[in-house]
Amino acid sequence: MVYIQGHSVPQANHEVLHELIAARNELAQIMGYRSYAEFIVMPNMASSPEVVKSFLLEMSKMIKPKADEEFEAIKNFKRKSCGQKYVHLEPWDEAYYTAMMKSSAYNLDACVVASYFPLGQCIEGLKMLAESLFGVTFHSVPLAPGESWHPDVLKLSLQHPEEGEMGYLYLDLYSRAGKYTGCANFAIKGGRRLSETEYQLPDYQHFSGTRVALDFAETPSNLFEYYAWDYRVLRRFAKHYLTGEIIPEKLVKSMQGARDMFAATELQRQIFYALVDQTLFGERLGQTRDTSSIVADMKRQHTSWNHVEGTHWHIRFSHFINYGAEQSGASYDDCSFIHVGYYSYLYAKCFAATIWQKLCQEDPLSLTTGTTLRTKILQHGGAKEPADMLNDLVGDGILRYCNGGIVPDITSFSDEVKLMEDKQEQILL
Fold first, then answer.
1. Which domain of life is it from (predicted)?
2. Which of 196, 220, 264, 361 has the CB geometry, 3.0–4.6 Å to 67, for a possible disulfide?
């Protein structure tokens, strides 16, 4: 009942979505494009919706056998739990039974995990990572009167031993009423040269940070997720908030196992979301108002799960509205809402897997590794073509040219998935 109710309201959003599709289609045609998807994708690495679609279908085909295996494993677990020979697996079963299976396999307690990650230690981990990789240090800076928008805000200055002060970071980490609910970063003030002798920190205004091609922007964050799961990194800062005990390696391995247990199911979901995104704002949708039937058919085709009649999850999917505005060469205050870039999450996963395996995995906290990342990728922002930077970083085997566009090479990511498959087979058997 909760699942159906939560995925069938608000009904008014059907008309809102239809108007959004129509308005974006009109905008694209005014600009000389066949679809809004083409308008958004063309300036990026993929270059066309056709290239995006072929990449997503390739990923979908690759992940389907493993996702189907995970589906059957969940179904078998439900059968045993219910004591029935024949059971149907419904979408609302997924979260319930996968949580039970993870708990049974790894005996994880979220409160125990959290006890090793107090906020102060996490900030120390950020400082350690920056110093180990890039030779830079964060220093707490007092806030001037009126500088902060809330008393909880922390200000850090980034210092380099040779280059001096490089910029500032404001951390606003606590939840509160009225605060933006998502996890995000926002550029407050870009860098620029004011005169021959004066420079406004931190970097070049329209090329710095995440002001890069949409389908490249998520790559650094996905790469650094590997650091957040690597025990060699965690043992440097993850300590119990009362005893100071370093997080046990056995606990980290259990966390990693639980994370990977249904990785194919989650990846299949992300591919499905990206395909829906491309379809709703693509050329072939035309003037149809029945987006629910389109989404239902696509779910049956591209996932292992049933569609529940009468539900319309897509009318609550906020990524259709605002994803990518801060990443597509613009900031929130100087760009209209942009989307049709959900596929960029998957591009990033593939690029990051290759970079991690080829450059970072052997010695992740090496200054040499960090210097390479900085000089060949991070310091350029949007001032260099992403493909040139990626090839310069790791050489061959990170991307492919496809029908006039660029797609990630999925070899490293595929190998990673197969490794997880081997581990899961042992668990489920």
1. Eukaryota
2. 264
